[in-house]
Each structure stands twice: as structure tokens, then as C-alpha cells.
Amino acid sequence: MTGAPYIILxxxxxxxxxxxxxxxxxxxxxxxxDISLLTDKxxxxxxxxxxxxxxxxxxxxxxxxxGIVQKIKSGFSLIASTMAVRKHFRKKRPTLVVGFxxxxxxxxxxAARSMNIPYMLHExxxxxxxxxxxMANKSQKVALSVQQTQQVxxxxxxxxxxxxxxxxxxxxxxxxxxxxxxGGDIRVFVLGGSQGARILSDIVPNSLSKLDKEWTERLVVTxxxxxxxxxxxxxxxxxxxxxxxxxxxxxxxxxxxxxxxxVISRAGASTLAELTAMGRPAVLVPLAIAADDHQSANAAIVxxxxxxxxxxxxxxxxxxxxxxxLKLFDDMGDLRDASDQMRTLGRLDAADALAAEIIQLGDxxxxxx
Length: 369
What we know:
alpha/beta; Rossmann fold; elongated
């Protein structure tokens, strides 16, 4: 074999799948490896290190939800996408395919399996995702983010690497948590994914507005909301005299986390990886409709460690959140302790560890080719 191994990174198009793939791509590119990305239109639209490398954008449609007609369309989509990937692989045969989960990664892994190309998988959540679960048995190895990952098939070789975070997050991780002192500002960051932002916009502004003036005057809120919710969320904060920046997207999440004392968010794997890396305490509201309830499993690990407080959607009410926040603000020591416990879960070496596993397999398979 001549040259560096050619490695395919196949990822679903959500940030939760793309962020660890991006972090690993950065490491592999720095090490001189030849890589390409396979994803869908959503992943193609995310601005990151992948903008500079070769990619194949698949026209996949999810098998999840919908009636019989949608399932038939999805089946044809999967067949067509797998054939497109096989054609791509025949032009330039990869040494190794790495699947990061999500439906768009399935055609890449199926094509690899059908062409006897070795592949490995990475799981971000505390429950093995469906695509990874289906493909695990024939994989060279499954890299896990947490030791407690559920639904891993028996006999599958696994390694715990952690969930890679972006380089900027890792670089800021060792900066100390600033406890609000005296009458200083209390900075709250509200984060919801595309599926989960609505309930946070319904509950959080109204909960903060119910607090006494001694607290509302100190609050500085950064709130990520869906475009259709921006106006009403801003109006609630303004009426309560709360300083707030409300936008549909923040491209400086690392900078926002650096100055944040409390995060209120969903419990997606990449969000938690960044919170644990930077030691930011959180109130977590797991997305109830998440596949296999994986966000609840993610959140339970963090809560058990003492880094967060979990409120399920049924208990996530204006009154309950207000009461909980008042208790936290009344004794800032709980926030400081939670920050310390969050850091115990952080894996700042996750990108390096996962890249090392990929390189080891890639080199081994390249020598065998």
C-alpha cells in the first residue's frame, strides 16, 4: 500500500453526530490521513472543518415515523444511497469506514459490509443508537462515550473513548468556574436543539420572570430559541426587566459557556460532552420523544455524578422551575459543587483517543491490504 490510509467518516446530519466527527477529522487531517465525509444535506450545511475536504452528500430519508408509503420511500432511498456509496467506494476504495450513527451513516456502513471493507462505529449516547445497534456485530470495534452504554450486543468489541468535543471547547476547559458573588450578575444559558427548543421557550422565560426583583435584576440570559418563538420570548424577558439576548443560533457556544453560571438545556450527547468538559452545571430536560429515551439515560449519568439536576417534561413547569432556580440562586455553593462534579465526567482527550483507535485500525488494515 502507498500513502496514508483512506478513511471515510460517515455521519448523520445533526450536530450531535457531526461534532464528534468534526473533532476527529481535525485530528486525522493534522496527522496526514486522507479522509472523506459521507452525510446528508443537513450535515453538508454545517460549517466546519469538513468544508475543506472531499464529501459525498446522500439523498437519504429517515425510516423513522410515517406510514407505509413513507417506509416504502425510505426503503428505496436506502437502496439508492447504498448503491451510490458503493460506486464511490469502487472509484476509491477506503481502508476503513467510521460510522458516527444517524440514518445517513447506514448506507456507508452497508456498502462497506457488502464490499468487505472494515468499519468501526462511534456511539455518542448512553444508549446504542439503532443504526449502530444494527451494524455492531460485524464491526471491527465500537467506540463508546460512556462505560454504562446500554443495548450493546453481546460479543461486540468495545472501547470507551469518550465523546469528542470541538478543539475550542477543549482549549477553554481548564478555565475556572466563576461563582456569582454578592450582587453580581447571574448568567444563564438556555440551549435547545431543533426538536426541543419549544418547551424551553414556553417555560424558562416565564419561570425567571416569576423570581423576585432582587434576582431578575441580576440575571443575564442567553437564550437559543426557534425563529418563530423569538418575538414572544424577548417580550417576556423585557416585561420582567431581565437582560436577555435571544437568537435562533449562537456560533460562539464556547464563549457563552465560559461566562455562564447555569445552563438549562436538553440532554443531547454533544451538549453534555461540552458541559462536562467545561464544568458547567445544568438543569437538564431530556427530550421525551428521543429514540429509546436516550436523553434520559444521558442525563441520569450526569445527575448521579452530582453535576446536574434533571426535570422530565411532565415536571418541567413554570412553578417547579422557579422554585428550583430560587433554591440554587439562594445557595451558590450548590452551583460551584455541581461544576466540580461536572468536570469529573469530562473527557478532554476523547478526540485523541478516538483518532488513535481509528489510526490503529486504519494502519492495520492498510498493511493487510
